[in-house]
Amino acid sequence: MSIDLPILKAPPLSVEANVNLTTRTLQLRLAGVINEQVHFRTLFDYVFGLTDDVRQLIFDVKGIQDINSSGLRSWMLFLKKVQEAAFQLTFAQVSEPFLERANIYPDMLGPVGTPVEKFEAPYRCPRCDIRSLHLLDTKAFESGTRATPPPFRCESCHTDLLFDELESEYFRFLRRLPKTSS
Questions:
Q1: Predicted pLDDT of residue 98
Q2: How confident is the model at residue 33 (pLDDT cuts 50, 70, 90)?
Q3: What is each CA distance from 38 to 21, 65, 119, 168, 181, in whole angstroms?
């Protein structure tokens, strides 16, 4: 059984939940801005109320457009409480702004070993000067090797796109992911 629920629809953040009682998972899709106006108390109360039925939280934060220092603090407190309640965490999709913050504050993505499945990566066309985001799968990056962004072509002029960040900094979070066995 799977149930979709809007949990929070208050600007600047909206949260939708999908509860799957068969797999005992709760997927939370967050969209908007996490700032000083966002308090995760309602969300935590909702999540904590499911502790008998749900053991795994799957976060989809691809819709997060910005997170400021006050929002970061609220998120970190929420994540700490969720971890104390012994939920297993996974990040299904991570937006570029969320990942940029997580590379500075790694615990935003949970403890070391928390899986991240996909993340947005920025590219730029040297000819059109158009910036685009591409969703990358972490499975494409071997653990322990230097992360190299996959190639993409501009949809307008078909020129090879350039990765639009410092690779060594942008892919830093990959070191925290679970080690894959060869």
A1: 97
A2: very high
A3: 28, 14, 23, 32, 39
